[in-house]
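Slide 14.
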Amino acid sequence: MVKVRWHGHACFEISTPEVTVVIDPHDGISLGIKKPEVKADIVLISHDHFDHNKDAVVAKPGAEILKMFRGEKEVRGVRIKGIETAHDDVGGRERGKNIVYVITVGEVTFCHLGDLGHILTEDQVREIGAIDVLMIPVGGTYTIGPEEAKSIVKQLNPKVVIPMHYKIPGLQLPLLPVSHFLKYFEKVKKIDSNEIEITRETLPAETTIYVLSPP
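Slide 15: predicted structure.
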């Protein structure tokens, strides 16, 4: 069993009793939302912008911190792959590079798209490979918007999609609400919590959108 907790914006905690991974931590106050209350063994940062790079907020002493990591690595039994993409649709010339992380914890494979700014290429789709759970930005402005996100869900064909990086109460960024993304899908499950437990056996048969509640 793997626990997934959303700390708002693009920050997720993926944990088992043995290890805790946090992706794209923020400090809360800079965004107008709650600070992540978690201590991580592994911290992954997709790009070096203030709303994604606050590793000091969540890292345990001695934690493995991977900033814009490209390649493959295993840390504490967690398999991590970092794939270079762009934060915009002009090859990174406006907002820089972005790393997509593929993370396998136990028997479940997650993909966190960071602040992806474009439709994936065939090579990127191939490099990402088969995934179970996709964390995808949907709020536009700084990343892909709802329509591009819909296309990427089709490209990657995950079992579970967790939208992120959209307007939530308190957030001081001009993003669209998640409803603009949800209108493209029939299978939507709204979770009355910011955390869920996932096992391979409980994955849905068809792609389903899980909307977690803000923390």
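Speaker note: The mean pLDDT is 96.
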